[in-house]
Design goal:
With 385 residues, the protein is mainly α. It has two domains: 102 residues, no CATH class; 203 residues, MetI-like fold, CATH 1.10.3720.10. Helices cover 60% and strands 11% of the residues. The strands form three sheets. The protein has a three-stranded antiparallel β-sheet, with no helix packed on it. Helix 4 crosses helix 6 and helix 7 packs across helix 9. The relative contact order is 0.12.
C-alpha cells in the first residue's frame, strides 16, 4: 500500500509540475506584479494615450530648450518680414531631388493696389542646416550660446511667417510654450495641494470643519468661472513685472481649480475611513498622518493622477483666455494667449491667417492632455477587461 501511495504521489507531483510549466510566463508576471507595474502595462496598451504622452513630451522638451530650438530671438524685429507668409520646406529644385531647402522671400508692392506682397526668389535656394549660429541667448539665464537647432545662412527662415513687427512667429510660438505649459503644471500642482489638503481634512474629520469647507466649495462652484477669472485678474496691479503677473495668474487659476478635486477627495476619504484596513491601522496605533499618507491616499493615487492630468487643459485654456482678453499676461511677455491676442480682428485673420497657428498648439496640447487622462483613467483599474 505504501508503494502504491508513493506512486500516486509521484504521479500527482508530475501532473502538478506539468501544469506549472504550462502556465504562460506573462500570467505569472501579471499575478506577482505591483499595482504600478499593472498600471504601466495597461497604459502602454492604450496607443492613443501613448502617442499623446509623446506629443506632450516633445512640447515640454521644446519649451525647456526654447532658445535653442527657436532659430531667432523671439523679440528681434526685421522690417523686411512684416506680415511675411510662412515659407515652405522643399526637397525638389528645378525638378531635381535635393536636401531640404527654402526659397527666400522678397518684399514688394502690388502696382495696382499698392498692397505689400511677397514673392519667392526661386533662383537662390537656401539650404536648411542643423546647429547653425545665430542670435545670442542665455539658456535658462545661465548658459550663453548662439547655436540654434536649425536655420539658414545670410537670410531669415520664417517657418510660421512673420508678425506685424517682422518677428519670427515660430520662435515666438516655441518660446510662448514655456509660459503657457508651465502655468498649467504649476496651477494644477497648487490646486492639487489645496484639493488634497482641504478635501482630505473635510472627509476624514467631518463635523463643523467639514461643514465650513463644503460651504466654501459650494460658494466657489456657484460663481461662473470666466467672470471670476476676470474679476481676480483685474485686481492685479498694472505695475507688476511679468514674473509677478505670471505667479498671480497661476494662483488665480488654482483658487478656482481646487474645488472639484477637493470634493472628490472628500468622498473617497469618507468611504475609506470605514474600511477594515483603516480600522486595523487605527487599532495598531498608527498616527493620523500615517493613516492618511500611508494607507488612505495610496489607495486612490491613480484616480488623483488621472484627475490631475485632465485638469491641466483647463489651466492652459484659462491662461490663454485671460491673455487673449488682455487681462492676463501681456506684452512683452510671450505666451500662446498673448500671441493670439494679435488675431482678434477679422481683417487680420483674413489677410494673415498664420497668426492663428499658436491656437493650433493650444488645441493639440488640450487634446493630448485629454487623451493622456483617458489612458491613465483606464489604466487605473488594471484588472478590468
Amino acid at each position: 500500500m505504501s508503494d502504491r501511495a508513493q506512486n500516486s504521489d509521484d504521479s500527482q507531483s508530475q501532473v502538478d509540475d506539468r501544469f506549472v510549466h504550462q502556465v504562460p510566463p506573462q500570467f505569472s508576471a501579471f499575478s506577482s506584479a505591483s499595482q504600478w507595474q499593472l498600471i504601466r502595462w495597461r497604459f502602454l496598451k492604450h496607443r492613443v494615450a501613448v502617442i499623446a504622452l509623446g506629443v506632450l513630451s516633445l512640447l515640454y522638451v521644446c519649451a525647456m530648450f526654447a532658445e535653442f530650438v527657436a532659430p531667432y530671438n523671439p523679440r528681434s524685429t526685421d522690417p523686411r518680414y512684416t506680415h511675411a507668409p510662412p515659407q515652405r520646406i522643399r526637397i525638389f529644385h528645378s525638378g531635381k531631388l535635393s536636401l531640404p531647402f527654402v526659397y527666400p522671400v522678397v518684399k514688394g508692392r502690388d502696382p495696382q493696389t499698392l498692397a505689400t506682397k511677397y514673392s519667392e526668389d526661386v533662383d537662390t535656394p537656401l539650404k536648411l542646416r542643423l546647429f547653425v549660429r545665430g542670435d545670442p541667448y542665455r539658456l535658462w539665464g545661465l548658459i550663453g550660446s548662439n547655436i540654434h537647432l536649425f536655420g539658414v545662412k545670410r537670410e531669415r527662415f520664417m517657418l510660421f511667417g512673420g508678425d506685424a513687427a517682422g518677428r519670427d512667429l515660430f520662435s515666438r510660438t516655441i518660446c510662448g510654450a514655456r509660459l503657457s505649459l508651465t502655468i498649467g503644471l504649476l496651477g494644477v500642482f497648487l490646486a492639487l495641494l489645496l484639493g488634497i489638503l482641504l478635501g482630505g481634512t473635510s472627509g476624514y474629520f467631518g463635523g463643523t470643519l467639514d461643514l465650513l469647507i463644503q460651504r466654501l466649495i459650494e460658494t466657489l462652484r456657484s460663481i461662473p468661472t470666466l467672470p471670476l477669472w476676470l474679476a481676480l485678474s483685474v485686481a492685479l496691479p498694472d505695475h507688476w513685472s511679468i514674473s509677478q503677473r505670471f505667479l498671480a495668474i497661476t494662483v488665480v487659476l488654482s483658487i478656482v481649480g481646487w474645488a472639484d478635486l477637493a470634493r472628490e477627495v472628500r468622498g473617497k476619504f469618507m468611504s475609506l475611513r470605514e474600511e477594515d484596513f483603516v480600522r486595523a491601522a487605527e487599532l495598531g496605533g498608527a498616527s493620523t498622518r500615517r493613516l492618511i499618507f500611508s494607507h488612505m491616499l495610496p489607495s486612490f493615487y491613480s484616480h488623483i493622477i488621472a484627475a490631475t492630468t485632465l485638469s491641466v487643459p483647463g489651466m492652459i485654456l484659462g491662461e490663454t483666455t485671460l491673455s487673449f482678453l488682455g487681462l492676463g499676461l501681456q506684452a512683452p511677455a510671450i505666451s500662446w494667449g498673448v500671441l493670439l491676442s494679435d488675431a482678434q480682428h477679422f481683417r487680420v485673420i483674413s489677410q494673415t491667417p498664420w497668426f492663428l497657428i499658436p491656437g493650433l498648439f493650444v488645441i493639440i496640447t488640450v487634446l493630448a492632455f485629454n487623451f493622456l487622462g483617458d489612458g491613465l483613467r483606464d489604466a487605473a483599474d488594471p484588472y478590468a477587461n
